[in-house]
Specification:
By secondary structure, the protein is of the alpha/beta class. Helix content is about 35%, strand content about 20%. It contains eleven helices and 14 strands. Helix 1 runs parallel beside helix 3 and helix 5 (about 135-145) packs across helix 6. This is Putative HTH-type transcriptional regulatory protein B6F84_11410.
Length: about 290
């Protein structure tokens, strides 16, 4: 079945959920097609895919989710109904799988290049093992693996094969079964590009990253603040569209939106509309705002 945005929207509407369609950029690849929130408050960042998804699209989804929050998903015709595809900690699922997630069901089986695995809850596995007075060595013997493997399972650092998962469930029960929606995401320093605004934000304690294929250019967070920044595009005929779509993303995640513009006239116009604006030439003053916090 060919996946279209209309297919996804119909599922969301059938569940009675609110959603935002993100329409920027309009004529090229984009990393976020739709944002929706389930009845149990899960926020999905969804990319629909009818062709091979690019590394930049995956990177945008991962960075946004790691720094701001939300559950990044790619919906593709290449996934089986109950088996997700791990694309670097961003999961691709079928349309049927997405319908299950919207209704509150779990998907816990996923495929990588190395095989098919089961998502478990590491903290529950550790708690159950300790409650039953098993050592890691005891469990390792039961599964026929090394003690290091059990350590990795309990720290979420290793994929769990279907065979190992079945044995763990026999020992500890189904409570240990996880959900791809609960994957903890983080980004390495090597994944963060160099950019003047990123350096300013990092100097005042923010974790920040650059996005390439959506209306938001920079995502950033620290213990007190979560912000998104949109830079004025070179093409003036798309600036209003970009800001409008950035506003939808910021609103869906209750984020402070900051706009960086090159023109004093444009800055005044945007400020009249209620936006917080910085001139590109004076972007260093961004540091002063967050120093006070």
């Amino acid at each position: 079945m060919v996946i279209t945005l209309e297919n996804v929207v119909k599922l969301v509407e059938d569940e009675g959920l609110n959603y935002s369609i993100i329409e920027y950029p309009a004529k090229s690849k984009k990393s976020i097609d739709i944002i929706t929130k389930t009845k149990d408050n899960k926020k999905f960042l969804v990319k629909t895919s009818t062709e091979k998804i690019s590394k930049d699209e995956i990177a945008d989804l991962k960075k946004f989710a790691a720094i701001i929050g939300g559950i990044p998903l790619v919906i593709t015709e290449n996934a089986e109904e109950d088996i997700a595809i791990d694309k670097g900690k961003v999961f691709a699922i079928s349309l049927e799988g997405f319908e299950k997630l919207l209704s509150g069901d779990k998907i816990f089986i996923y495929r990588t290049r190395g095989g098919i695995f089961v998502k478990i809850r590491p903290e529950v596995l550790k708690r159950k093992r300790e409650e039953m007075n098993y050592s890691m060595g005891d469990v390792a013997k039961m599964l026929g693996v090394t003690r290091k493997t059990i350590y990795d399972y309990e720290n979420g650092e290793s994929d769990v094969s279907i065979e190992a998962a079945e044995k763990l469930i026999d020992i500890f029960g189904t409570e240990i079964i996880g959900d791809i929606c609960n994957m903890k995401l983080d980004i390495e320093e090597s994944e963060i590009e160099s950019h003047k605004v990123l350096q300013i934000l990092k100097s005042v304690g923010f974790k920040a990253a650059l996005l390439k294929l959506t209306a938001i250019d920079i995502v950033a967070s620290n213990e007190k603040n979560k912000i998104v920044i949109t830079m004025e595009p070179k093409k003036q005929d798309i600036i209003e569209k970009k800001i409008h779509e950035a506003s939808k993303i910021a609103s869906d995640f209750n984020l402070k939106l900051i706009i960086v513009t090159r023109s004093s006239l444009r800055a005044k116009e945007l400020e009249k509309e209620g936006f917080q604006v910085y001139l590109d030439q004076r972007i260093d003053s961004l540091k002063d705002e967050f120093k006070e916090n």
